[in-house]
Fold:
Amino acid sequence: MGRKLLLHNDHVPGIHTLDVYRANGGYASVEKALKTMTPDQVTDEVKKSGLRGRGGAGFPTGMKWSFLAKPEGVPRYLVCNADESEPGTFKDRYLMEHIPHALIEGMITASYALGARKSYIYIRGEYFYVSRILEQAIDEAYAAGLLGENIMGSGFSHDCYVQVGAGAYICGEETALLESLEGKRGNPRIKPPFPAVAGLYGCPTVVNNVETIAAVVPIVNMGGEEYAKIGVGKSTGTKLISASGHINKPGVYEIELGITVEEFIYSEQYCGGIRNSKKLKAVVAGGSSVPILPTDLILKTAKGEPRLMTYESLSDGGFQTGTMLGSGGFIVMDEDTSIVKNLFTFSRFYHHESCGQCSPCREGTGWMEKILKKFLDGTAVESDVDLLWDIQSKIEGKTICPLGEAAAWPVAAAIRHFRHEFEEIAKKKKFNDVSHYERLRKANA
Amino acid sequence: MGAQVHGAQSFDAAKRGKIVFSEDAMNTVKKIMSRYPEGRTKSALIPVLHVAQAEFGGWLSPEVMDYVASVLKIEPIEVFEVASFYTMFNLKPVGKVVIEVCQTSSCWLNGAEDIVKYIEKKLHIKVGETSSDGMFTLKVAECLGSCGTAPMMQCGASFHENLTYEKVDKILADYKADGRLRSYTDKDYKNTL
Ligand SMILES: Cc1cc2nc3c(=O)[nH]c(=O)nc-3n(C[C@H](O)[C@H](O)[C@H](O)COP(=O)(O)O)c2cc1C
Ligand code: SF4
Ligand code: FES
Structure:
């Protein structure tokens, strides 16, 4: 059994309430940090833990915290990124819905380390009901003196608020999120300056993912060194993986970084194998933005070593033969899946979500969707594959934020590994679309 | 096209004769406005627009947006800029229940397209249209964070997951019998796994 640090209590009845959460050891990290540690000591433990951002980019959290500017008399902010909109990702929702206090506890402890008097949890608008669960938890924490003035008599005061968004994937990008939190359109800012210097209201700000902030709790409780013992190399600790697609047991799993991809897909403890006894065809391992890999490359690296669920192993081989851990949105496709059509759903998504500030992204995402639609309509010609390749290659590095790249990478990877599928449709001038229920009916016949 | 929707008829405000937040809504708005530092009340815009949309018939008319601007003491254009950017704000009248079926990868892999077609046929409307009784507007949406319980749809604050045709029948019948306007800010949300 893998070790669990975030979801170890998720099935305890009433764990969403403060009483039950505390009876199960909750808020120990707040007590320990505020009463026995200096803010810098908390940051040091996070550094020692090797924790890397769980929002997608994997940037070392302790290092990010130490970049926070601390000019005299200027407020600092902690902002939690709960925008979770990367297709295939639903782990933050699970954590906030079931154990809301795990996030609130992390917010308090992290804010103490950063010297933030106020913090905001920016949650995607579609999760409105989850925002209510969080607000209830926050009310309970205030009533118990865990938020507000002079927490636990430590002299540290803190207010935490929940802010809802209104349906825009781009607001997950940290500077777009800050714009949105200021009541504006979610247009990413040009960096630098980085949020650590000029973030919310122009003040120094740390933006961290829900899971990153929740992980601060076990790190403070057990100590950074202990935490770092879990995992492999620079991939320390545990990670929440949202598993979906053609698997027997979709859901959110907490894994120790370092288990093999094969174990994750096939063991009963996790995904439980491919549904309807079908064969595995491809996996998008870290949310829609990361390169798709065919079976042989997701189970083993190009060197023939078993692929592990770690930042390093998943990206082994670069984009030629590897992918990324990303947000942990693990989408599994069986042998009957059309890679072209799956890609179309992604491209439609990025076109819809582009904020429109940069021409390569605004226009490129539209063109890619349009060309892929031609494939689905059976009107694509063989040169359209090269055209698609050409368009995606002209986005990377030419935009304000990484959404442009996130839109280009899936297209590049699908062509790289499944070019024959595009060519076959173009040659036959026909796309065989099979409805899901039709397939199920056949499978069960 | 589906039939014309008379958004104004379900207007609570219209019943009161003018566009003003009810006392309840105003209290919520004041609470939201208190969360930000001095001079930063514009930050309240998005949450307040959600309250306004729920309060004034499920969509944001120009008059409602002007009213929100006056409450937050910002320019009307600042409100429109934001309202038109975010997909959850309706700038046109909608049915009492807006059905949003996720169409992205994991949901597509699990039959989202069939679900959309089924609802289109059942309600005699196409995506983007409203049923002739003004009850339902059908939309498609991008990943709503329920990929592990796909296919799914959202109706107001409620998530309906692991959808089947039978489940869709029951959900729509329940909404119809209930007959109320559903919004993202609903307190009695339902999650059907
Ligand atoms: C288009 C785009 C969307 C993003 N969406 C999210 C998101 O939904 N949640 C998240 O935590 N990070 C998201 N990120 C990453 C954030 O910009 C940022 O790196 C992250 O919140 C940092 O937190 P971490 O270091 O704890 O991972 C997104 C980035 C981009 C470019
Ligand atoms: S890359 Fe796309 S989403 Fe990002 S700022 Fe440019 S247009 Fe907007
Ligand atoms: S793909 Fe439909 S909820 Fe994520």
Notes: The pocket of FE2/S2 (inorganic) cluster (ligand 3) is lined by residues A 87; B 102, 104-107, 143-147, 150, 152 (CB under 6 Å).
